[in-house]
């Protein structure tokens, strides 16, 4: 039974361990295939629509590239200012419209819950590419794909999630997926940006071991991997609060020398100042490989949604 056929992708908690393993398997098949050829025309004639109400580089372009590598096409509503959204059209009406032109919708929107709302307004699959401070499930999948690639396994890892755990949708989705693999998690953030209590207690209920701390060095010493995140400036109603926490956690040469052990570093990107460019040449710096993996995961998801895997 094709597990994602006709389905929406809305939340990191919608997958079973078996689902995740299947998605990663399909993604690695596509990664191998793309070494030999440019396209795998499984989705000829299928059209993907990107609806991005917030900025994006990697997520939108990798979805567009993914559908094209699969032989389909992409249409996009460019800047919100150039569409009927600027005339006051509701999200639901826009979704209904786009559903007439495309076979799958990829949505990024500033409101938490918007992807679910969109999915309820249409019969075609909706993929959540980030709903406010909510979820970003396709990023979580490419993150675990990268973790397995870098560390050889997903089981029994100790992982530090660092930065804006309150507003970061990538970490909100990632912890859901990691909870399937017996991970131990360090949540490293300023007090103001702690992981929402609801998420933490829900994970603890599932048996995930969690340590909350403001000490990145202590967490890094205990971890196989550090997942850095950007402080989500756009989510602050009061910019003076942002000023208090910006630059809270920075990985640079000095930090790595003090740490004095090899660690894998991921970041969903874009970065501001939380990883110094000097770190890019460090063998454990895997964030550019991680970003590249977005293509394979998104190809896998699209092929599976259309029942081709
Ligand atoms: C993230 C996002 O939009 O949530 N970017 C991404 O999709 N890779 C992370 C961020 O903006 O900080």
Number of helices: 11
CATH superfamily grouping of the largest domain: Aspartate/ornithine carbamoyltransferase
Element-level helix/strand string: HEHEHEHEHEHEHEHEHHEH
Q: How many structural domains in the coordinates?
A: 2
Radius of gyration: 19 Å
Number of strands: 9
Spatially, the strands of the biggest sheet line up as 7-6-5-8-9
Which ions, cofactors or small ligands are bound in this entry? Answer: N-carbamoyl-L-aspartate
**Annotated CATH topology of the largest domain:** Rossmann fold
Largest sheet: 5 strands, parallel
Percent of residues in β-strands: 5-15%
CATH class of the largest domain: Alpha Beta
Mean pLDDT: 96
Features:
Rossmann fold, 11 helices, 2 domains, alpha/beta, four-stranded parallel beta sheet, 39% helix, binds N-carbamoyl-L-aspartate
Present the secondary structure layout.
Elements: H1 17-36, E1 47-52, H2 58-69, E2 73-77, H3 91-99, E3 104-109, H4 114-120, E4 126-131, H5 137-151, E5 158-162, H6 169-178, E6 184-188, H7 197-205, E7 209-213, H8 216-222, E8 225-228, H9 239-245, H10 253-259, E9 264-266, H11 287-305
Parallel strand pairs: 1-2, 1-3, 3-4, 5-6, 5-8, 6-7, 8-9
The protein binds N-carbamoyl-L-aspartate.
Structure, explained:
- The chain has two domains: 136 residues, Rossmann fold (3-Layer(aba) Sandwich); 154 residues, Aspartate/ornithine carbamoyltransferase (Rossmann fold, 3-Layer(aba) Sandwich), CATH 3.40.50.1370.
- Helix content is 39%, strand content 15%.
- It is built from eleven helices and nine strands.
- The chain binds N-carbamoyl-L-aspartate.
- N-carbamoyl-L-aspartate binds next to α2 and α6.
